[in-house]
Amino acid sequence: MLRKINMSESFSDTFGSCREYESPEFIASGRAAEVYAARNISNGKTYAIKCIKFSPKKCQPDLIKNEINILKSINHPNVVALHDNYAGPQHHYLVMEYAENGDLMSDLQVQKRYTEKFARTVTLDLVKALNYCHQRGIVHRDLKPENILIDKLGRVKISDFGMAKRIEKSGRLNTYCGTLIYMAPEILSGAAYDSSIDVWSAGIIIFIMLSGYHPFHGKNDAECEKMIQSGRLYFHPPSWEDISSNAITLVKEMICPCPLQRSTAKEALKSSWLGDKKYSFKKKITSAYSNVLRKNWQ
């Protein structure tokens, strides 16, 4: 639900010199920014405006510049496009494509879980975008349902590249960042990592879409970390017995504790679940496979 802001106070305080836009409505807030939907006076289109409040931290300008440069280099239907950017007296503004249907997390909270057919459609869009980014050396590093938006046509789009980083083909990163319950185990252990951490996060998202629950949801952060590092997946029968074995296989390949054995985005697109354009959803899980699930769960 969008929240209209007070035009006489909040608009002038928050938007500063952002005079090309009107009727701002609050969408969401994060660690260092607030996002508003506002109409461009010239063309009548609605955009999402990310307002980043200036911080005394010396690294902030570099982080903003990095996000802008990465977004400018991306042109993909499943990644939110950057329309414009500029600085005001107190904020830096990123004017981006507006996704009318909100984010994936909000939708999942209402739907609880998706049908396998719809989850596959979302997964295809998501993995195509990841493959595009990874081929260009871009690692998102904070992939989660809140950062996946849905436009008016139902297409999903990856957003929020505030933590993204560009690396060379054989390069590695070592900064501890992201959201705990979507972090790959190599980040938690302090090891160097690459784009495979995004595949892990995407695997978690697919698991949630298909089952309606998080595979590593613990009572506290310490328990979550322990579960993530173990990599043990529990396929509770009531949630998984109507899901195809091909879908389950891909989830396992993406949520693999060993990054060297983990599927890449390119490999995921060629998997039995995603690679077959004529995939039949009548191929439900076999009774034998269902028995294996029940045995593993008990």
UniProtKB/TrEMBL annotation:
- CDD domains, sorted: STKc_CAMK
Which key words tag this protein in UniProt? Answer: ATP-binding, Nucleotide-binding
Q: Name one Pfam family in it.
A: Pkinase
Keyword ATP-binding present in the record's keywords: the answer is yes
In its UniProt record, a GO molecular function of this protein is: protein kinase activity
Q: Where is the Protein kinase domain?
A: 21-274
User: Record's PANTHER family?
Assistant: SERINE/THREONINE-PROTEIN KINASE
The protein's name in its UniProt record? Protein kinase domain-containing protein
Upper lineage is: Eukaryota, Sar, Stramenopiles, Ochrophyta, Bacillariophyta
